[in-house]
Structure formats: C-alpha cells, structure tokens
Amino acid sequence: MIAYLARRMLYAIPILIGVNLLTFALFFVVNTPDDMARMQLGVKRVTPAAIEAWKAERGYDRPLLINSKARGIDRLTDTIFFEKSVRLFVFDFGSADDGRNIAHEIKTRMWPSMAIALPVLLVGLAVNITFSLLMTFFRATAIDIWGVVLCVAMMSISTLFYIISGQFFVSKLWSLVPISGYEGGIDAVRFVILPVIIGVVSGIGSGARLYRTVFLEEIGKDYVRTARAKGLAETTVLFGHVLRNGMIPILTGAVAQIPLLFLGSLLTESFFGIPGLGSYTIDAISSQDFAVVRSMVFLGSVLYVIGLMLTDVSYTLADPRVRFE
Amino acid sequence: MRFIATLGCVLLLAGCGRVWNDPYPASESDKNILYSSFAERPKHLDPVSSYSENEATFNAQIYEAPLQYQYLKRPYQLIPRTAVALPKPNFYDAAGRVVHSDSTQVAYSMYEITIRPGILYQPHPALARDASGQLLYDHLTGEELKRIWKLSDFPKTGTRELTAEDYVYQIKRLASPRLHSPIFGLISQYIVGLKELAQTLREADQTLAAEGERGAWLDLSRYPLAGAEVVDRYTYRVKIKGRYPQFLYWLEMPFFAPVPIEADRFYAQAGMAQKNLTLDWYPIGTGPFMMTENDPNTRMVLQRNPNFRGEPYPSEGAPGDREDGLLADAGKRMPFVDTVVFSREKEGIPYWNKFLQGYYDTSGISSDSFDQAVKVSVEGETTVTPEMKARGIRLETSVATSSVYLGFNWLDPVIGGQGDATQQERARKLRQAVSNAIDMEEFVSIFANGRGVPAQGPIPPGIFGYRDGKVGMNPMVYDWIDNAPKRKPISAAKRLLAEAGYRGGREEKSGKPLVLYLDVTGRGPDDKSRFDWYRKQLAKIDVQLEIRDTDYNRFQDKIRKGSEQMFIWGWNADYPDPENFLFLLDTSQSRTKFQGENSANYSNPDYDKLFAQMQVMDNGPERQALIDRMYDILRRDSPWVWGYHPKTYSLNHAWLYNVKPNQMARNKMKYYRVDATLRATRRAEWNKPDLWPIGLGALLLLVLVLPAVMSYRRRERMAARPSEATA
C-alpha cells in the first residue's frame, strides 16, 4: 500500500505543476500586473510611478514566464511564474496582494467552512442513503414512483432558490434563526443550522436518486436472494448486505469530498455571511488577488489528489477483493 | 446524539426571553450600540493610503485630521477639529517677502496650524512604557512575537499627548516609497520638497536593502522636509508652492491625520506584517472611536476611545434643523454611542431583511426593494410606504456630490476635437446632437427609480458654482418653458445632426450609415436593458449605436490609451469646491497624455486659461462669473453628455437620532444617538418566533414515515407467496 501511495504522490507532482501553470495562464490572460496594481491602489489619482513601485515591491515587475534578458537558468527562474509558484510546493503561501498573510487566513477561515460542510456531508449522506433505501424497499410501488418524482423535482430547483426561500420562510417569516452572520463557539449552531438544512435538502434529489439506482442494481443479485432465503429481515438485507456492496460508488463521491470540505461553498457562504474559504476565494477573484487565487487553486488540487487517494484506500476497506496494484 | 442535544439546548436557551433570529449576542440587546454593515472589506486603514469611501467609514471615526466639516450647515463648511482655528495662509514671493494674496508675485503660501493641547491617543501597545519611561514593545524578539496574533494579545497599552510632530511625520509618510499614497502625485506638486524627500527616501530604502535590511524601519524623522516644519509642540507649518486654496480641504482628510512615530516603529518590527500587525489593519488615532475588533470577514467593531476629550454636538444648523429635532442634543458631549458594530453583508437580500427586522439601524435602498420602501406621489414627492411608516422608519434623501456622465473621446476622429476647423465644427454638432437625443430624465426615471437630478453641467447641487433655475440651464439641450427646463424636441437633435453632415443618420458624401461606439463594462443581466436603452436613444436620430462591452481591466486600458469613442464614467467629489469637478476637463489632466483624470481628453486653451484663474480664487461673484464663462465653453463644446447627479436615499429606524445626510463629512458616527430600549422592544415585537412550522414539519415527517413503517411491517409479516411453477 505504501508503495502504491508513494507512486500516486509522485504522479501528483506533474499534475500540480500543470494546474499551477494553467491557473497562472488563465489569470494573466484576464489580468495584467498593472491591472492588479490599479485594483490595489484604487481608481482615483493613481500615477504610473505608483503602479511601477507597487509591482516592483511585490515582484510583479518581472517577465511572466521567460526572462529573455537573463542568462542560463535565470531565464526561467527570474520570472513571476517561478517566483510565485515554487514556494507553493512547500506550502508557503506568502502574503495576499493587500499584504495580509494567506496561511493565517486559511487557518482562520477553514473552521466556518467546515462547520457547514461537514454536517451537510454526514447528515446528507445519512438522509440520502435512508431515503434511497426506502425507495429501494418499496420499489415499483407508488412510494417509489413518487419518491423519484420528488427527487427529480428537487434536482431541478436551483440552490439559490433553496437559499432565498429558506431565508424568507425560516428567518424572515417565522423568525426562527438569524438570516445571516456568524459567531464562533457553540453560538455558531444558530447560524449554521439553516445553511446546513438547506445544504442537505438541496442535495437530496440528486443524491438519493443516484444511490437508489446503485441499490436497485444490487438488490437483484444472487447474494441478496440468498440472504432472504436464509430468512434475514429486509432491513438486515438492505443495511447489512445491499448497502455494504453498494458502497463503492457512494465512497467514490463521498470520500473524495472529505478533504475539500473546508474549501467551502461559494454561494452559501456569501448569502449567509459565513466567513469561510469559499467567500475568501470569491473576494480574491473579484479583487484580482493572484496570490490568493493561486494558493486556493493549488490547495484545492492537493486536497483533490489526497481525496482520490483516500477513495482508493477506502475501496479496499469496503471491498476486500480490491487490491493495491 | 450529542449534536442534537446541544442544538436543542441552544434553541431552548435562545427561546428563553429573547428573539431567536437575533444575529447578535444576547448580552448586547439593550446596550448603547450602533449597528451598521459593510459589503467589501476595506483594503487600507493606514491613513496614508486609504482613499475609498468604505475605508473612510472606519478611518474617519478613528483618525483626526486638523479640520472637519460642520455636520449640519449647508453649503458645506470647514471648521476646526484638532486645530484651534481654521488656518489662514500667508503669501510670500520668491525672495521670501510677504505679499498680498492677490499679488501676482505669490510664490509660496504658508499654512500655520495650531492644535489643541491635551489631546490623547487611544490606548495602544505601541505607546506602552515601563516604569522608567522606555517603550515596552519597540524591540520585540521572535520569541515574544510567537504568542502574539492580534493587537489585544499585548498585555499593556499606553497613550500620550498628540503633538504637531505627529502631523509632520504623517506628511513625510506621504512620500514614503513603501506606502504608495494615492495623493502623492498631486500633493507633491504643491508641498515644497515632498518630491525631493521621496527621492531621498527611495535611496535610503535601497541602501537598507543593499545592507541586507530590506523592510527595516525607515525613521522619517531623520529626513527633513522643507515644506513641513514643527514650530513648537502644538504648531506646525506647511509650505505650499504658489496659491492652492483647496489645500484646506485636504486638511480635512485622513491623509493629513497624525501618526505617532512610535506606531510606525512598532509596526515596522520584523515578523509583525506576517501576522497582519500593521497600521493597515490596526489603526491608531485620537478620534472618538478606536478599532477593537478587526475581522473583515465577519465584523469590525469600533468602541468609544476612553481617552477621547469629548466634543460638543453642534449648536447651529441649517434652516429647518431645529424643527427636525437635529439640534435637540446641542452642546452635549459626543460621541453618544459606546460601540459601533459593522457586520459584513455581501448580499442585498439578507441585508435588507435584517434592516426590516431591526438588526441594522440604517439602510440604503436597492432597486429591488425600492417599491417596498418608497412611495412617489403624483407631485413627485417621495415618502416611505405605509408599511415602513407603521414601523417608524424615516426616509432621508440628498443629492450626492457626484456626477455620472457619458464622455466623448476628444482624440476620436469622428466625434472628438481633432482635425481642421470644419472637422471640429462637424464633430461639435454631432456631440450636441447626441447630447440632445439622450433623454437623461427618462434614464433617471427608468434605471434609478427617479433617484437623480439630470445634470446641466459638471458641478452638482450643493457646491459653489452650481446654479439653479433658468441661469443654470444648459441652453444647448433645454428650453425654459413654464418656469422649468424642458428638453428640446428631437427635431433639434436631427437638425444638428444634419448640420454635422449626417442627415438622416448617413454620411452625406458617402451615404454610409453613421455608426457610433459606446464602450461599457457590463456587470450583469440588468445592464443589457440599459445598453438597449442607449441604442434606442440614438435610433431616435437614425444613428446606429454599437455597444462594446468589455471587462473593467480592458475598459480602463482603452480609456488610458484613448482608443474608445464614447464611454460612461463618474466622479465623486473629494471636497466641495468647483475646482474638484472642473479640473476633470482641464488639458493638464488629460488621461492619455498625462495619466490625469480628464478621461475625455478634452482640450480647449480658453477653458484652461479660465480654469487656472478660477482655481486659485475664493468663492464670490467674480469666481461665479468665471465659472459661468467656463460653462458656456463646455456646453458649446459638449465634451460630455452631462448625465445626472445621483440622489442618495437612506432609511433610518425610529430609535436612531441626529441623522442628516452629509456627503462630505465621513466622521458621522459621533453625532448619532440610539434609543437602545426602544430598539430592543421593537425587535421583540417584530421577531416573535413562529413555532407552528416546527410542529407542522414534525407532523409531516410522521405522516410520511408512519405509512412507510406500517407498510414495511405488513410486508415483513406477509407469508411468502408460492410461485406459479410450484402452485
């Protein structure tokens, strides 16, 4: 297993370089270092000298990818790309363009993001699995048919609609929870309960429908018939046998998400005023802060790679037939 | 299970004696706190680089420049803040002899500012001293900094008296190569020696870097500045090149607020910036409030500065202020509120709903909520809707000191001011035709809910130089009919177009249709209708308009290079002086040639000459006459479609007092008074939790689950049916 994981980690290096290069190219196609300087320095009364000074101070006065004036290896290393990217590989995110420490921001903001994402994942999984198993149990009955109709209807509604409706009914009309905001500690529960409920409800449609398909495929197999023939209760058949064998596609989706949990949800965080990493990324994009954008994309890529590796590991736990090769 | 139990406890506790949807801690419910919001995190809180409105909201409450605007009087009037009196400049010739202000020999103006003694800084660790008087935190080691993450982690704070030296130190900071002050380019043209100081500091910075001490503290007190000197502990002088009466207005802004040398040194220590311990993050001032919490992701908190000297509420105001209750607190010591809490609110819907729930004391009005909040009578009078009135919400309106305009690029060969006299005349007629065709009254009505005043020139109402009535009307676009300006008929625009050589929207010689181009930055779906509207306006005179929608960066790039033809832009006043609007059309400010603020690149030597005269004059009939002449030139040349001056609408709850719109003063928080008891009562009334949805939800779940459980049990009890084969 260790050899397999080491190999996967080595594969990750070119992937991360590629992602970094792509982020760099996409960012600088839209923005130039001059644009970034103007964004930081403001619109009024900004002189060309101030722009040059800002760029020089932050190392944006170098060529982007190749320094034709330099010699030897400096042609590649004395560039914005090299200077800004190489440190990421040792997780030195540096400072945002406004001078604030990115690592500190990430450490602070990951908790609010997780306060929403983790319950949404766990409760969502539980609800989706229960609902899909219920539909599987009542397959080909009115409950199943109306369950699928409900799932399709729920899938068709945009997340924004859930958010706005949730805020309108729960916070405004019924005055049950704050409409937006965030507090640390136990008080956070009051603020995250609505986004969590909305996150779970908005995910039921797609999740339960997918899992239902998986379970229906499993329920027709021989081992299920054997289990029933042995006289096991239907709940034992469903939760003890069908669920376990249907875990691989569920794990593919769920485990890969775990490391990404703290990256946050852009829309939910914005509407509920949650100071997480989703809103941090959105703010950085709108303020053309390359330092933050590249850090968040890099972090996302690393976590995605880790998530996929965890998925592979989880396969071996869910299905003993799967081996690391 | 533990989570559910905790959740239940929290909800139960929340339900005991308070509303459930209160976003603030229960302990704050009856406190003397002002609740406000912010949408965008402030980039700079260092007064040397802070220039945006959203930064001024915080900085103006903390830093104290020597002057301020009188809160109630109109037109806007400067009064002393930390200064003893408004400084009056003395004028000198090149040889240093005193001359009269009207003299043509004026080479320098000298402003001598005396500040009040006894003003103290807020408690701050940078000013903390030990028993022997030595600063406690000016030589922090890496080990000591390990435990420090925010300013409140420093166990001790201190204060000291404000001195003239602090003001001079801040003026020197404007020249620092590390701080990028946005006004350095402008102000270094006026303050004697500032440019030279910038060069000296740049060299010193490079020397430090060469010595391996990049970023080490640059002690500005070691570098003299010829244009700013300390006279005594409470007095300093600023020497200005020539005459620059607008300098007084700059003395109201945070750029000229004091920064103690100890703070500059404190924040420059190695390792501080990596922990966001900078002046950009933690300001230090002498004002009525100090920043005690800076979490721009969630909330920022200003608390009463315990060392603030107190300041009396104004005893004089504008006519009608007494009747409006704005002088009820006359002479009382400010500030009235203990704390100001700014919560971050990025989206309009939650912000508006929280205002309606009573969790924000004041609110603006977005287009989406305009109809819910405001009623416009047949006579055009705006009031709040009955729903708002029933809640005691008041509406305050005022015309912003801003102009939004459509500019014609003077460098454009078709519509600009280039070429021979014939070409220039054709382009002028074309600009006038376009100005006549674009119906700004309709624009304001459709796209701004009537919140704007169609402009007759660049200067907005409330600023000297603006004229109301017939004398202020733009005769190129309006006729004076029935005591009101009335837009000329579209036939006038068509006639001008024909005179320009584009009869029926076609180039007379070639017969080709005339196509004009408008560069815009579309931000959302709402903009599409706006662009269609512009097309429709020019279609009225058979001219095709092509919209060139681009992102903001490219748009700015085009403006800088002068490659656009027409564009939409705006200007928000720095200070209430006509110079701050009329300079936008001065040749020396050409965006393309000199990277200035004249985005239209308009150039007219006659106008420039008059501007140079007007710029240095005091307000009075002579200055007004000059402005009138400048207006005549501008209206004839029509470098802009004059656009409109936006109106600001704000809603205030019944428990918030002393609110009067003031477009120039940003230090408003100290004037506001809050009735916290009334607020708590209203919040409780408006936010009674409805528990029936919880019961209904539980019932619904039961209705769904119960048949499923029953069906499951029935199936489990059912005997296996024999298959047909075995039957």
Kindly describe this structure:
The complex is a heterodimer of chains A (325) and B (727). Chain A has 325 residues and is mainly alpha-helical. Chain A is built from 15 helices and no strands. The radius of gyration of chain A is 25 Å and the shape is globular. With 727 residues, chain B is of the alpha+beta class. Helix content of chain B is 31%, strand content 18%. In chain B, α15 (526-539) links the parallel β22 and β23 (544-549). The relative contact order of chain B is 0.12. The chains are: A mainly alpha (325), B alpha+beta (727).
Overall number of strands of chain B: 27
Q: Characterize the biggest β-sheet of chain B.
A: 8 strands, mixed
Q: Which band does the percent of strand residues of chain A land in?
A: under 5%
Largest sheet of chain A: none
* Beta strands of chain A, count: 0
Number of helices of chain A: 15
Most extensive interface? A-B, 67 and 64 residues
Q: What coarse outline of chain A follows from CA principal-axis ratios?
A: globular
Strand content of chain B: 15-25%
Structural category of chain A: mainly alpha
**Distance N terminus to C terminus of chain B?**
50 Å
What is the arithmetic mean of pLDDT of chain A?
87
Distance between the termini of chain A: 8 Å
Structural class of chain B: alpha+beta
Estimate the helix proportion of chain B, in percent.
Answer: 25-40%
Helix run count of chain B:
22
Summarize the structure.
The complex is a heterodimer of chains A (325) and B (727). Chain A is mainly α. Chain A contains 15 helices and no strands.
Keywords summarizing the entry:
heterodimer, A: 325 residues, mainly alpha, B: 727 residues, 5-stranded antiparallel β-sheet, 22 helices, 27 strands
Could you outline the blueprint of secondary structure elements for this entry?
The complex is a heterodimer of chains A (325) and B (727).
Chain A: H1 2-30, H2 33-41, H3 48-58, H4 74-77, H5 80-85, H6 102-137, H7 142-156, H8 159-173, H9 188-219, H10 222-229, H11 234-245, H12 247-257, H13 266-272, H14 277-286, H15 290-318
Helix pairs in contact in A: 1-15, 2-3, 6-7, 6-9, 7-9, 8-9, 10-11, 12-15, 13-14, 14-15
Chain B: H1 2-15, E1 33-38, H2 53-62, E2 67-69, E3 78-80, E4 90-92, E5 98-99, E6 108-114, H3 142-145, H4 164-173, H5 184-187, H6 194-210, E7 228-232, E8 235-241, H7 247-250, H8 261-267, E9 289-295, E10 299-304, E11 311-312, E12 333-334, E13 339-344, H9 348-356, E14 362-364, H10 367-373, E15 374-376, E16 382-384, H11 386-390, E17 394-399, E18 402-408, H12 421-437, H13 440-447, E19 452-454, E20 478-481, E21 484-487, H14 490-499, E22 515-520, H15 526-539, E23 544-549, H16 552-561, E24 566-572, H17 579-582, H18 591-594, H19 605-615, H20 621-637, E25 640-652, E26 656-657, E27 673-674, H21 676-686, H22 692-717
Parallel strand pairs in B: 1-13, 22-23, 22-24
Antiparallel strand pairs in B: 2-3, 4-5, 4-6, 6-8, 7-8, 9-10, 10-13, 11-12, 14-25, 15-16, 17-25, 18-24, 18-25, 19-25, 20-21, 26-27
Helix pairs in contact in B: 12-14, 19-20
